[in-house]
Design a protein that fits this description.
The protein is of the alpha/beta class. Helices cover 28% and strands 16% of the residues. It has a 17-stranded parallel sheet, with helices on both faces. Helix 15 links the parallel strand 21 and strand 22. The longest helix is centred in the C-terminal third of the chain and has 21 residues. The chain is globular.
């Protein structure tokens, strides 16, 4: 007890640490108990079935035998249920899994039993997924890892190969989702559409992966106090330099054979940056968030001729080496959150570069059309680019993901307005070319004027606009026959706008923000169907909502979100959600309420949710 108002709680899996802490502070040890069989079964069923009622009777006996071998360890139950989720629900197959756990486990300590179950899940993975999972051992304990960043690393390492009609990034998404479905990784942050953005690895699973990595000489970890380098192989394939206690401490790499290193991953700003001269076969170099990185550290980068992946995000660098174009195999370059103002002229010689990420203030050199391998380009500030860039952008035939910024710079001078009109015309021409080629995702910031031009984006599947309010839904939106996700801000949403959006044949996710209040009462009915829409987010921009769902509207809608809205009377919150047959989640973010209205508003929305046959989950935030 530190004071009368505070308590220190220390968690550990090591008994000696618990004893030491309790004796030092005169505290108590609370040993977490394992789950009972009843609670184990609840956790097991929640992972595999919708409810206990759906549990097949013919699997009850074998499932109880499996749970007894898990000994009430939650992680073991989650791991084994993740394994069974990918098997047919037959008694013979489940018995095989039970027998694979082994009779010896019944005599093993709890941690060893859990490791054996994790091993069973690991060896059940296809070879590609084993490698992808093992790669997570390069990250420090408790790391929050970005999904997209991880997939790009997998690609650069050569773990994922393009197959069939799917892109290599789509294959990476499938691998990630498979690990997620097997409960081998844990989601941390999801976006408003339910997509996982970041994740973490459970400490016990990470311990297992580190053990396997050392056994197979997959990763060499340096700077981890509990893992001396002498216990690892001297021949290094992938190097993970992690946080050490003293600033600018020397990394103990003496005696390690570094000539075969394929990737270097530096974590923490107290790690000394090693010289890159000896890493001639390097494919992956990740310095993200390394504030100790200086310009002179980049001098030898241009000699890394096999480099495929270079992450310099949030390092504080101000320029790239002029010879960056010598890296003929480079596929991914991330320069975001830095002080770089202009890219070297030689960057257009990176003929294999498929992903380029920069800040919106960065100026591009002449010759962007040479970079035909580009698939993802963001975040480009259009207003400060040369005319060659604006024209050349439309010639990037393989571009799939584009983020543009600064399309609507306001000015009172005639000269600047003329320049803006020329700029808009050039970018509209390029977008129309891209929209008939391979462009799949387009994000536009501050682009109201461009959105009101007649665009042709028939290949686009995802269109996101930010700070780009338009007077009404543009007519060309009706031509987006492949559009699956749309985010749009309209000055005053009217019934005609809803009719245009409802007619989009493949729309699954819609985020609609109302910039100014419309005087129309909006009704979504059987005639205005939104045939396949699954997620609808309506941002009222701190105004009342006058929207009603009629019978037959949005027949596939699963998630309904009202953001930043207020109402005059709680009774007006009955939106007709009982007419949405597939609804499972309702989320309301309200604002500008007086204290007495909150309970009445919540009660009104709760009544609507309770009368729905699905009894959707209700989130009420104020």
């Amino acid at each position: 007890m530190a004071s009368s108002d505070s308590i220190i709680i220390t968690t550990t899996r090591i008994n000696d640490v618990a004893q030491s802490c309790s004796s030092s502070f005169n505290g108590n040890i609370y040993g977490l108990r394992c789950l009972s069989l009843v609670h184990s079964r609840q956790l097991f069923c929640r992972r595999l079935f919708d409810s206990n009622k759906d549990f097949p009777a013919h699997l009850e006996k074998v499932s109880d035998e499996i749970l007894r071998k898990c000994d009430g360890l939650p992680l073991a139950i989650i791991a084994i249920s993740g394994l069974l989720a990918n098997r047919e629900r037959t008694e013979d197959l489940w018995n095989q899994v039970k027998d694979s756990i082994g009779r010896a486990l019944e005599r093993n300590p709890s941690v060893e039993r859990m490791m054996n179950i994790l091993s069973l899940s690991y060896f059940d993975l296809p070879p590609c997924l084993k490698t992808c999972l093992l790669y997570l051992s390069v990250f420090p304990e408790d790391s929050i890892i970005e999904k997209k960043c991880l997939i790009r690393r997998w690609i650069a390492e050569g773990f994922i190969r393009k197959a069939d009609r799917h892109t290599i990034h789509e294959i990476g998404e499938r691998c990630f989702n498979e690990l997620l479905n097997r409960s081998l990784i844990q989601p941390v942050k999801t976006n408003k559409y339910g997509e996982v953005m970041t994740f973490r690895v459970h400490d016990t699973i990470l311990d297992f992966l580190i053990s396997k990595s050392i056994e197979e000489n997959f990763v060499t970890l340096v700077g981890v106090p509990i893992l001396p380098t002498r216990t690892q192989s001297k021949v290094v394939r992938r190097l993970s330099l992690q946080v050490v206690k003293k600033p600018n401490s020397t990394i103990p790499i003496a005696g390690l054979l570094l000539s075969h290193v394929r990737s270097i991953n530096v974590f923490g700003d107290s790690v000394e940056i090693p010289s890159l001269e000896v890493f001639r076969h390097l494919c992956v170099l990740d310095f993200k968030d390394c504030h100790q990185l200086e310009q002179h550290h980049l001098e030898n980068i241009v000699r890394l001729f096999q480099l495929r992946y270079l992450n310099l995000k949030h390092t504080g660098i101000s320029e790239l080496p002029e010879q960056i174009g010598c890296l003929g195999f480079l596929e991914m370059l991330d320069l975001r959150a830095n002080d770089v103002e202009e890219l070297p002229a030689s960057i257009v010689n990176l003929r294999k570069l498929s992903c380029l990420f920069v800040d919106h203030g960065v100026k591009f050199p002449v010759g962007i059309a040479k970079m035909q391998a580009l698939e993802s380009l963001k975040q480009v500030g259009v207003s400060n680019q040369p005319s060659d860039f604006l024209r050349g952008l439309g010639q990037l035939k393989n571009l799939r993901n584009l983020v543009l910024n600064g399309l609507g710079v306001d000015s009172n001078t005639v000269e600047t307005n003329v320049v803006r009109e020329v700029c808009n015309k050039a970018i509209v021409t390029s977008l129309c070319k891209l929209g008939t080629q391979n462009l799949r995702s387009l994000t536009i910031w501050d682009g109201s004027s461009v959105l009101q031009e007649p665009l042709s984006l028939i290949t686009v599947e995802k269109l996101i606009t930010r700070c780009s309010a338009v007077p009404q839904v543009p007519k060309w939106v009706s031509s987006l026959r492949n559009l699956q996700q749309l985010s749009l801000e309209v000055e005053g949403v009217k019934q005609d706008d809803l009719c245009i959006l409802a007619a989009l044949p493949t729309l699954l996710i819609l985020y609609l923000r109302e910039a100014t209040k419309s005087n129309e009462k909006l009704r979504i009915s059987g005639e205005v169907r939104f045939q396949f829409l699954k997620i609808f987010i309506y941002d009222a921009n701190h105004r009342p909502v006058d929207l009603t769902f009629g019978a037959g509207s949005m027949p596939k809608l699963e998630k309904l979100v009202f953001e930043a809205f207020c109402v005059a009377q709680a009774e007006s919150l009955c939106f007709g959600i009982e007419n949405l047959p597939c609804l499972t989640t309702v989320r309301c973010v309200v604002c500008r309420w007086d204290e007495g209205s909150i309970e009445a508003a919540y009660a009104a929305i709760e009544r609507s949710a309770n009368t729905h046959p699905n009894h959707p989950t209700l989130e009420f935030i104020y």
